[in-house]
Specification:
The protein has twelve helices and ten strands. The chain has helices at about 15-35, 55-70, 85-95, 105-120, 120-150, 155-200, 215-220, 265-270, 275-280, 295-310, 330-340, 355-375, and strands at about 5-10, 35-45, 80, 105, 205-210, 240-245, 250-255, 285-290, 315-320, 345. α4 (about 105-120) packs antiparallel against α5. The longest helix is centred in the middle third of the chain and has 45 residues, at about 155-200.
Length: about 375
């Protein structure tokens, strides 16, 4: 069944409605990636989100009332809040919306659903399950508190606490098992990287906001044949291809992995640490940027923040401004001036424009790094 979705965001009063709609546009792209459709988008300006339901109770009732007026084909069956909600807020919203047969997710629920849908390897599936357990665990604890408060009698309280404890123990055991299995993949990946270093193979890793064109660039440079789609999070697994450097006649390894997005939860980053190992160990990062996106500057900051969380923000980087074939009236001189320290390069992975220059920049860095190691 197609998920017909209501999107709701609560924004501070000092954020413009235009910026608020841009936030919801990204959430709508996530919904489409998942396979759903959006029927209503709602923004509420509120200094402090509602303690009980995140969205004010009056606004929720207004949304549900409007949904009732739609014909059967247009009625929503899913409500997504564009933020990370507390366990009690999800519980309280669910209590209100379940009467209208509407399920409630927060932004992280949606991202995890997309990841689960796109995951192909056993490792990726385990990483997603781990992230889901870390995300759902506090909710189960919160649910236990709600059952305790609402029970009234000793019997109800006892049953509620017993069931919650059973669920918590089950999740804890499952988390331990998943972490043990992921250690195996960590070792495998670490051994691969060790072997490359022993062969003096330099590694270059693609990073960037999701849907910036990293996989298309990997294919263009290595003919790897990676799956490409105009969707957020089309790539979850790490792919490594060989890049030929013409001047030195050497091979370097080019890797592509998961794209980043704003408000990516720490639990998700932690779960994907083994996948992100390629980025952490790389000799050079290519930060791929969709220059046709009006919000590319803010998305650069999102990626840089995540690289800081991974403690690799100081790693050598080249800013690769991609999709020049789609960009209209871009001020290249201003971009070159502003991001000069990151050796900006303009390319189109689709048309191959600018790729020789990019390869030249990569080779310059690799050769310079090799010389520095000999000194």
């Amino acid at each position: 069944m197609t998920q017909k979705t209501i999107l709701v965001d609560v924004i501070p009063p000092d954020i413009s409605k235009e910026e608020g709609m841009q936030r919801l546009d990204e959430l709508e792209s996530l919904v489409k990636t998942y396979g759903g459709i959006v029927v209503v988008k709602v923004i509420q300006k509120k200094g402090i989100p509602d303690y009980r339901t995140y969205v004010g109770s009056g606004k929720i009732q207004e949304v549900l009332t409007d949904n009732k007026t739609l014909d059967k084909k247009g009625k929503a069956n899913l409500l997504i809040i564009n933020n990370l909600l507390k366990p009690s807020q999800i519980f309280n919203l669910g209590e209100i919306c379940t009467k209208e047969n509407i399920e409630v997710w927060d932004r992280i629920d949606l991202i995890l659903k997309i990841f689960d849908k796109h995951a192909k390897s056993v490792e990726a599936k385990l990483q997603i399950e781990l992230a889901a357990i870390r995300h759902m665990g506090p909710r189960i604890y919160g649910l236990g508190l709600e059952l305790t408060r609402q029970g009234g009698g000793i019997g109800t309280r006892g049953i509620g606490e017993t069931n919650i404890q059973i669920m918590k123990r089950h999740l804890k055991r499952r988390e331990v098992k998943i972490r043990e299995k992921l250690k195996h993949y960590d070792l495998v990946q670490a051994n691969h990287r060790k072997q490359r270093r022993s062969k003096d193979l330099k590694t270059v890793s693609l990073v960037g906001y999701t849907n910036a064109g990293k996989s298309t660039l990997l294919n263009a440079l290595t003919k790897k044949g990676v799956y490409v789609a105009d969707k957020l999070f089309a790539t979850l697994e790490t792919t490594v291809g060989q890049l030929y450097l013409p001047q030195s006649e050497k091979i370097t390894l080019l890797s592509d992995t998961i794209g980043f997005i704003q408000d990516l939860p720490p639990d998700l980053i932690d779960a994907f640490k083994s996948t992100l190992g390629e980025i952490i160990d790389a000799d050079l990062l290519l930060h791929v940027i969709d220059v046709s996106d009006p919000l590319f500057e803010s998305k650069i900051l999102v990626v840089e923040d995540i690289l800081s969380e991974l403690e690799i923000s100081n790693k050598p980087k080249i800013y690769v401004f991609n999709k020049t074939d789609l960009a209209k009236n871009i001020n290249k001189e201003a971009i070159l001036d502003h991001y000069n320290s990151f050796l900006p390069v303009f390319i189109s992975s689709h048309t191959k424009e600018g790729l020789p220059n990019l390869v030249n920049q990569i080779e310059k860095h690799i050769m310079a790094d090799a010389i520095n190691q000999l000194i």
